[in-house]
Every structure is written in structure tokens, then in C-alpha cells.
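ZP: hey, is the zinc ion complex queued? I don't see it on the tracker
AM: it wasn't, my bad. submitting now with these inputs:
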Amino acid sequence: MANLYPGGHKGDYTLNLREDPAYMSTGSFPCPVCGGSFRALKLRDVKLIPLRTGELRTQFKDVEPLYYEITTCPNCRYSAQTAMFDKLLTSRRKMILEKLTPYLPELMPWSESPASAGAVFERYYLALLCAGAGFADRELVEAGLWCKLSGVYADAGDAGMEAYAAGEAQKAYLTAFQNLRIQPVKFPSLNLRIGLLSVKIGDVKTARDFLYKVKLDPNSTRVQKDGADDAINELKETVTDHA
Ligand SMILES: [Zn+2]
């Protein structure tokens, strides 16, 4: 039996799913993998009101976008972040179908938007499966998905899996730096992400290395440098606490 989930995933999670019509609309999606088309609910990004912004996560009034960011085809179950749904390499269609096939009998019934916490997680893990096969910059796509998943696990109250997902995100960003040609203008944001994720998982050395890169990079914004400073101070406190 094919298992979509990593070992620590418990499965009996609850999330506060609130489908406020003010933030949702129905969109039509042609599926780039099976060629079918379907209608599904999607977030109206322009309506979102940010409350707390952060490099790893921004929180919004009344709605948690993380639960609604993955679009899934009802027919073949190809899944990706809504904004990237049609951006996959068309040469990879067959490979994605082959990847998905073993999981199809186990999946929950499809609905226009995720109807339960289980469906939210299922969509993320399907998107991770497809990202590995379908995108040229797969490392960055995977890193972004793991980052978001870490936030979803935090909301579901699973600190162990929150840290696990943060660790997977950190690894994927580090691999992206090795495998992809990343434009220097993106360094501050990626370095800050790696630094913050490393703080989360207690990887002090990597955290320090990458947070100082953000502080010294002429391309970093004031907000990014402040973010790095805050995280460095947090690290010092942790180290003192344990001394
Ligand atoms: Zn499809």
C-alpha cells in the first residue's frame, strides 16, 4: 500500500477551516496533466488583510490562506500551489501520472476546496509528490511547500511535525543553492528563510551563518536586516538559557 505521508504524520488533525465567501471565489482550471478541466474554490488574494507579516509566514484577518493554497485536479489528482498550477514542464506529464497512480485508491473524495484537515494535508503531500517530478526549480517549489506545511502542522498542534517540515524546508533551500542558479537579488530572502528555519530546528551554526549573510548583504532591506537581528538575539538568549 502506497503511503503518501512521512512516519511522524499522525492523521487525526483538526484545523479551523473557515470558508468565508468574502475571501473565496470559484475558478476554472484546465488540468495541464490529464487535459481535463474543472471548477474549484480559490482564494481571492487581493481581499486578504495582513495582520502580522514575516518572512516564513504572514497571518491574515479572518482566514488562513495556507489551508487553501493547493489546487487539486479531481480527475488525475495533480496538485500544485494555485499560482503555479499551470507552470509545470509539459514533458513531465506522463511521469506525474505514473507517480500519482499508486496513491489514487487511497485518496479522500475530492471537493471544491479541502473539507477537512486531512484533505488539507493530503493536498500538500500530493503537491510535494508532483513538485519532485514536474518543475524545473523543484528544490524551491518543495522548500516553499515544506515551509507552508510547517505552519499547518503548527496550527494542528503537532510541534514534532512542525519541526520536521521546517527541517525539510531548510534542506531543500540549501539544495536549491547548490543545484540552481539563483539571482543574487533573491539571496537576502532565501538566506533569511534558511536562517529562520535553522533557528526553528535548533541548528545554531547554520542559523548564525545565514543570518549574518543577511546582515552583510547590500541587497538586504531594512526589514530583512531587522528580521535577522531579532533571530540572532533569540539565538543568544537560547544559548544563554542553556548555559
Ligand atoms: Zn488532471
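AM: back. The pocket of zinc ion is lined by residues 31, 33-34, 36, 73, 75-76, 78 (CB under 6 Å).
ZP: great, adding it to the tracker
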